[in-house]
């Protein structure tokens, strides 16, 4: 049941593996094998409009089903894939698959794909994106690329050119995990983001009295609105948090409260049934220590 539905993704694999260089090499070899064997799939998590609880899209999140180790968290294998050069092939597979799967959804529903700073530094990225869109027959404005502040560590001229090339294709751009990175606000002057995703660390604890996160979220929302950007609050887990981020003016919500990442089959079935409204599911969340 839990298999592949995004639950119970565990992290001890990499911790164990990263214990030594030999294990690290093993992880790399396993990743390479997995790419060839097709041991990856995508899960999708709904992104919901704050005003009307409509599902505006889904974020694609990669999952690795290791034949022996079980489900491995992307937080563990994406950094390794970045370091050993496998992220290019993995990222291209993610883009193609997400575009193909999203092309089966109703036309109003978007898909968001995470793009690593390593991919962002590759001048071939716009061509890869264009090809994925064309092959799937997906309109460019239905694809949103999520990048992190890490891209601003790359060469700035090349980064500017990449922004222009991607916007030129007509895709949307979102700044992921906002507030956790290098957080120089300077880049917001020129980078053409359509959306800022407020990192879940700012949502944690907002419902508690005296918590400062609400003030920070409010400031981010004001900034984003002034710049004409949408805002998604990430990691919203309970109804109280929905109410608060709505009050603070976030335009979108993503989090376990509206659904865990689930496999494409489940999404497609749901959307076929015309279910475009998300209902909060009040399950108990056990937070990692
Ligand atoms: P992210 O892009 O910020 O994705 C959101 C993460 O938060 C996901 O973890 C999601 O399952 C989790 N999440 C969503 N709602 C909640 C909530 O209410 N509470 C909590 N505690 N967590 C929530 P996941 O799937 O493990 O992915 C972790 C990170 O791995 C992603 O963070 C992203 O940085 C990276 N990643 C995932 N898929 C890809 C991919 O295809 N390519 C690249 N380059 N990176 C990816
Ligand atoms: Mg993301
Ligand atoms: Mg994020
Ligand atoms: Mg993250």
Automatic annotation (TrEMBL):
The signal peptide stretch is none
Task: List, for all copies, the residue spans of the domain called EAL.
Answer: 24-275
Q: Provide the protein name.
A: EAL domain-containing protein
